[in-house]
């Protein structure tokens, strides 16, 4: 299940991509399939080991085109182990709401992104997330949990302050909002509640089968109750020095 829409966020074969806070690797895997040179980075060593196994399995199965590469590594989002301008593309999906120093993370992403490069940021959307917080303290008051809820203008403002130029936004995963409301209402750790189990089966069926009816329904509902807010931006090229300045 992808949150980034690659029809709005073009990826070319050979692009060097950083999936920052990759988690289980869903966006990293898609970039690898599209022929990118992918680095999937996360602080969770267990998840990184699983991502590395999947990269190896994909290579053996021939799922990635010739020239594509994939590396999974542990790392700190506030101290990335890469030189400046290392990547054509950076993706950070459902991560920034967890990190106290989100401005520091944005600064690091901008540092390692090449001028002219592209970045995709996804966070939980303000409205659906507020409902989750209102229904359950356990949803967010856990170690490593969500520490803030972004309004769209707030996130875009922070991206601009970091030196990025946003060029597009949208919402995603409307069908997942009711699932999380149910989880919060019945207990975030209570997967045995009948409404939660029933809705989970619906989501799994939708992800596996991709029926037209639910795809259309989600497209219509995304602007209203989409679970995620997605923003795309570029890192501007530095202005060329003037002839007079160059002569000094």
UniProtKB/TrEMBL annotation:
SUPFAM superfamilies: S-adenosyl-L-methionine-dependent methyltransferases
Protein name: Class I SAM-dependent methyltransferase
InterPro entries to which the protein is assigned, alphabetical: Methyltransf_11, SAM-dependent_MTases_sf
Organism (species): Streptomyces enissocaesilis
Domain Methyltransferase type: 18-120
Record-level GO BP terms: methylation
Keywords from the UniProt entry: Methyltransferase, Transferase
Key word Methyltransferase present: yes
GO MF: methyltransferase activity
Matches recorded under Gene3D superfamilies: Vaccinia Virus protein VP39
Signal sequence bounds: none
């Amino acid at each position: 299940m992808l949150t980034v829409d690659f029809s709005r966020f073009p990826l070319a074969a050979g692009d060097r991509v950083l999936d920052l806070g990759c988690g289980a690797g869903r966006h990293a895997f898609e970039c690898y399939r599209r022929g990118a040179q992918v680095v999937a980075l996360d602080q969770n060593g267990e998840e990184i080991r699983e991502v590395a196994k999947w990269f190896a399995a994909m290579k053996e199965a021939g799922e990635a085109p010739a020239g594509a590469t994939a590396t999974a590594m542990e790392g700190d989002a506030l101290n990335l182990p890469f030189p400046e301008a290392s990547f054509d593309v950076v993706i950070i999906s459902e991560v920034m709401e967890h990190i106290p120093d989100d401005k520091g993370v944005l600064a690091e992403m901008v540092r390692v992104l090449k001028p002219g490069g592209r970045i995709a940021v996804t966070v939980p959307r303000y409205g659906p997330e507020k409902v989750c917080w209102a229904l359950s303290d356990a949803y967010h008051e856990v170690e490593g949990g969500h520490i803030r809820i972004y309004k769209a203008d707030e996130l875009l403002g922070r991206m601009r302050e970091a030196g990025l130029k946003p060029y597009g936004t949208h919402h995603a995963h409307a069908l997942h909002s009711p699932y999380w409301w149910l989880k919060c209402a019945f207990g975030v750790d209570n997967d045995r509640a009948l409404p939660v189990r029933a809705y989970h089966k619906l989501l799994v069926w939708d992800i596996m089968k991709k029926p037209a009816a639910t795809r259309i329904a989600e497209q219509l509902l995304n602007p209203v109750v989409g679970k995620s807010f997605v923003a795309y931006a570029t890192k501007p090229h530095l202005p060329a020095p003037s002839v007079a300045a160059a002569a000094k």
